[in-house]
Amino acid sequence: MPTVLIIDDNAAVGVALDVLFSLHDIAALHAASPEEGLALLAREPVDLVIRDMNFTADTTSGEEGVALFRRIRASYPDLPVILLTAWTHLDAAVDLVKAGAADYLPKPRNDERLLATVTNLVELGQANRALSQRVGRERRERRELEQQYDLRGLVWADPATERVLQLACQVARADVPILITGPNGTGKERIAEIIQANSQVNQGPFVVLNCGALPSELIEAELFGADAGAYTGATKAREGKFEAADGGTLFLDEIGNLPPAGQMKLLRVLETGRFERLGSNRERQVKVRVISATNADLAAMIRTGSFREDLFYRLNVIELRLPALAARPLDILPLALSFLAPGKRLDPGAERALLAHPLAGQCARAEERDGARQPAGAGRDHPRARPRAAGRTGGGSRGGGVRGRAGPRRHCGGAGQGRRRGLAGRERTRLVAPGPVPTHGAAGHRALIRCASPSSPAFPPWSAPCSRSAS
Length: 471
Description:
With 471 residues, this protein is α/β, with parallel strands linked by helices. The chain has 16 helices and 20 strands. The strands form six sheets. Strands 12-6-11-8-7-13-14 form a seven-stranded mixed sheet. α3 links the parallel β3 and β4. α6 packs across α7 (188-197), α8 packs parallel to α10 (260-272) and α10 (260-272) packs across α12.
């Protein structure tokens, strides 16, 4: 039941209001003086204050009411206050409303109006308190998450991302395969890095293989290695990704593109930890934690026979579903700001444009809309962005790479070049932001955010079509 504090030197007013509020399930406390009212506020939880403007006989200036209001506002800045007085000084009313008073009602009062105002303010106050409590709880949980786990510099703000992070950190130390699902560019590899960084093998290597960036005939050699002479051009023996990841984590991106022969051999490795290099009869034993990711519907692929059901259940011991960027809108502006050069900011119009633009699930698209060119390979991630952001992770160059805890990734060959060439001539929208021109480097390319000088007379509005230039 909400509680209202009535501060009025007239006892009859307190009794009348007490009766009025009791008929509508509102508790009332009465104080006859400012000091008594402040003492009640310190002892009792109060949702709203109704108070007179004058407390001394023959006083009509309202100065006592102004002083009391300032004391209440200083100690309880969010507490709504309604002013009552028989002497309606408009100037005082306006000044106090500007200072934060909720309403100003003259005597004799209108009970219907007073009751409606009290009800609305109590409900609004309860909603604000619930929101403040939720925001405080989320901030506390975020601090605990950042202090307890290594989040690899992830940029995020949305509760949907936090839920995925909490689950990822909770399962990180479980030595079981994990399947990460979600649209391209949402940060699946980033989540895999966080899992590895908080796992029991966090000192081991973190090896990445993009199964969709390699021809099907090379997948087996990439996964399991090959002896010299195993295929045309194999002049020397090479280790595969499983050997490179021994004692650490192997991240298999786009696992839905793995060909049937590779699926069968991968299933055996997951079951036994043993495999043979291509062209070899010697069996090798490894201990590798496998994390896989896909944007495909593996259940539908199982129904069509293009993906093995038994492999699916081996990979999908724990599933982490990463929502598209459009489903976590509070991440958009922090990500966009992380793409800008230090000290740069977004114009309010640019922020509105980013929030209104359909980002198609990709964090990289947010960077493109922010004005920095999207890295080569739309929807894929690149390793040189700083700070690292959800959806901007290391893949891209020829299939994958190897990285230890302390060292950079060593790229190990792969594909994807055709797609990059196909993007080379595409025009992209460049947003305009005030200030000097910053640069942003990614994967050997330099991308510019077109910036108008503060003195430039021509600055296109954000609502108008932005200028376009060839990538």
